[in-house]
Write a structure and sequence with these properties.
Layout lengths: L4 H10 L20 E5 L2 E4 L4 E3 L3 H4 L8 H10 L11 H13 L5 E5 L2 H16 L3 E5 L16 H5 L10 H4 L2 E4 L4 H11 L3 E6 L15 H12 L2 E6 L10 H6 L5 E4 L10 E5 L1 H4 L18 H16 L1 H20 L1
Parallel strand pairs: 5-6, 5-7, 7-8, 8-9
Antiparallel strand pairs: 1-2, 2-3, 4-10, 9-10
């Protein structure tokens, strides 16, 4: 017997969406609740129940739901239009702010999701190096495109599927999966495959299989090895960007990769991501280079407006925000450990 509006909606949704959801991590037993509104740390569902949201859209909402400065900025942009199909000053201003904050982002492209960002980043790395193979680490999640759906974390791990049906062996044969924090395994692979490895991509801190920190020498060794072997080091900072520090893991650990991907916090609650890095690498993207990338909604003025608002707010208040994040995280960690 259906007892709630969320149950009723879920029954309707199951007829329209696989598993009744538009992303697998949203599916849980006996059924997900359906949200109607959220403010700050609180979320309300269709049945009028109120929840404390510890998830915050899987890390995207660093400042909480409906943060006033972001909402005001977006309200100001909406009457001016939501999509132009031509460049805007907003895009330029936003990219300039990111370049100031993120050490490696000399040049970049805006896209709409983390999956797009990592997919294009790997394509650029292959185009720049003229090599085929990539290395990822077991447990790191880099989105849902074919190159990285190999023993991935997040929703894939939740459902116990090391690979996805529909992903061709011809694609995954060029993806080498290594254990995270294992410098020896990395060195071994580079000795045998080094001349054909285009890039190494990783989450600097694993966040999709439980929180796993990099070993003391892991990131510095990774930087040294990739430099020596001519492979592109890509930090997937979709999760760590603007969270570990204003400049992300690059700033926190003092390691500068060749490329990075940004998302989640970057959009201030709107669909937005970016890939970028050294100018000599990124300038190979079309129309000036031969690595193709395009997107109708890339640099959407609403998302970019929200992005500018949150990045400027974080930059202006970093001396308060990041110590508070550290303090609250430690408090929650200690309580959970207890």
């Amino acid at each position: 017997m259906i007892e709630s509006k969320s149950e009723l909606l879920f029954e309707r949704a199951k007829k329209l969406f696989p598993g009744g959801v538009n992303s697998p991590v949203r599916a849980f037993e006996p059924h997900p609740f359906f949200a109607t509104s959220a403010q700050g740390s609180m979320m309300v569902d269709v049945d009028g129940k109120t929840y404390v949201d510890y998830c915050m859209a899987y890390g995207a909402l660093l400042l909480g739901h409906a943060f006033p400065e972001i909402m005001d900025a977006v309200k100001g942009q909406l009457p001016k239009g939501t999509l132009y199909g031509v460049p805007t000053e907003l895009e330029v201003e936003f990219a300039e702010e990111i370049s100031k904050i993120s050490p490696c982002m000399e040049m970049m492209r805006f896209v709409n999701s983390g999956t797009e960002a990592t997919m294009h980043a790997l394509r650029v790395a292959r185009g720049y190096t003229n090599r085929k193979k990539i290395i990822k680490f077991d447990g790191c999640f880099h989105g849902s495109h074919d190159d990285v759906l190999v023993k991935a974390g997040s929703g894939v791990a939740t459902f116990g599927a090391p690979n996805s049906l529909g992903t061709s062996e011809e694609t995954t044969c060029n993806t080498i999966v290594l254990p995270y924090n294992d410098v020896g395994a990395l060195e071994t692979v580079f000795k045998s495959e080094g001349s054909d490895i285009a890039a190494v991509i990783l989450e600097p801190v694993l966040a999709n299989v439980g929180l796993i920190l990099p070993g003391k020498e892991f990131l510095s060794s990774l930087r040294k090895i990739t430099t020596e072997k001519g492979a592109i080091l890509i930090f997937d900072e979709i999760v760590t960007g603007f969270r570990l520090a204003l400049g992300g893991a690059q700033e926190h650990f003092g390691i500068k990769p060749d490329m990075a991907t940004l998302g989640k916090v970057l959009g201030g609650g709107f669909p937005l991501a970016a890939f970028g890095g050294k100018k000599e690498i990124i300038q190979n993207v079309s129309p000036v280079g031969k690595v193709y990338q395009a997107g109708t909604f890339s640099g959407n003025p609403i998302s970019v407006t929200a992005g500018i608002a949150i990045i400027k707010y974080l930059a202006h208040n970093k001396e308060v925000i990041y110590p508070k994040l550290e303090k609250n995280t430690l408090k929650l960690k200690n309580a959970l450990t207890d």
